[in-house]
Amino acid sequence: MANRKNNANPANTCGATVGYETELWRMADALRGSMDAAEYKHVVLGLIFLKYISDAFEEHHARLAAEQAQGADPEDPDEYKAENIFWVPSEARWSNIQRNARQPNIGKLVDDAMAAVERDNPSLKGVLPKDYARPALDKQRLGQLIDMVTNINLGGAENHA
Questions:
Q1: Contact 139, 104 (CB under 8 A)
Q2: Assigned domain for 3 exists
């Protein structure tokens, strides 16, 4: 009788894992039924990208704030660009998105955040999704997704290029 390997857990099949697969599946489940699978990947990935750049920004902001006595300026976009970190304007920071996740205008707020990131980072111009305010996207589910993305830790130097 041949030995069978138990590959029920996809994380066991490869050497690399990012640690938030369960959260990604929960997000997909939250959207399932309300939109096509080919469409919800854009919703989820856009939010994850916004959280990722916001986490990197906040981490570097804290470092710069601690080094102000040595001349660092946490409000200077060039301080971030020098470290290959995107400048995230205050209205686009994840803390602002999270704080407003349950507001009826959350879709417009996310669209405005994406536009602000593109405005302040020319290399992202025209790249980020800006269709979170569309009527077909349930704003309660969007708020739930934001809460789920909040639970994913994207901080730490090991997660940043």
A1: yes
A2: no
